[in-house]
């Protein structure tokens, strides 16, 4: 299992456009083969910064999604709304606890 975190920084006038894109596509992304979890998080101090947080069965599954028509179409619509390039991290879980 891997976790993918992507920081997305939008132009202020583009935030609502992004939220519409995410609203339309999130159910398809979260049901993509290998995706077990998808969240959209917003920075508490900057309403133009969002993070996607997703869990994938493997990097192969993530790569398959990134090469899919779904990703290509969604990314094309999203990247034109950025005020800065996206930053992404792919992480392995080292430790977890339930409180």
Q: Helicity range of the residues? A: 25-40%
- Main-sheet strand order equals 2-3-1-4
Tell me the series of helices and strands, N- to C-terminal: EHEEHHE
CATH fold assignment? Alpha-Beta Plaits
Largest sheet: 4 strands, antiparallel
Beta content: 25-35%
Q: Round the mean pLDDT to the nearest integer and report it.
A: 96
Structural class: alpha+beta
Oligomeric category: single chain
What is the domain total for the residues?
1
Give the C-level CATH assignment: Alpha Beta
CATH 2nd-level architecture: 2-Layer Sandwich
The low-confidence runs, each spanning 5 or more residues with pLDDT under 50, are none
Helix count, per DSSP? 3
**Distance from first to last alpha carbon:** 21 Å
Estimated radius of gyration: 14 Å
Give the overall shape, derived from the CA principal axes. Answer: globular
What structural keywords apply?
single chain, 99 residues, alpha+beta, Alpha-Beta Plaits, four-stranded antiparallel sheet, 3 helices, 4 strands, 35% helix, 30% strand, globular
């Amino acid at each position: 299992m891997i976790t993918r975190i992507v920081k997305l920084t939008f132009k202020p006038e583009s935030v609502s456009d992004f939220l519409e894109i995410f609203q339309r596509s999130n159910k398809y992304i979260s049901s993509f083969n290998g995706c077990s979890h998808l969240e959209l998080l917003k920075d508490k101090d900057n309403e133009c910064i969002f993070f996607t947080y997703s869990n994938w069965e493997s990097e192969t599954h993530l790569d398959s999604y990134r090469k899919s028509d779904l990703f290509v179409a969604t990314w094309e619509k999203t990247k034109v709304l950025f005020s800065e390039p996206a930053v992404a991290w792919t992480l392995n879980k080292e430790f977890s606890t339930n409180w």
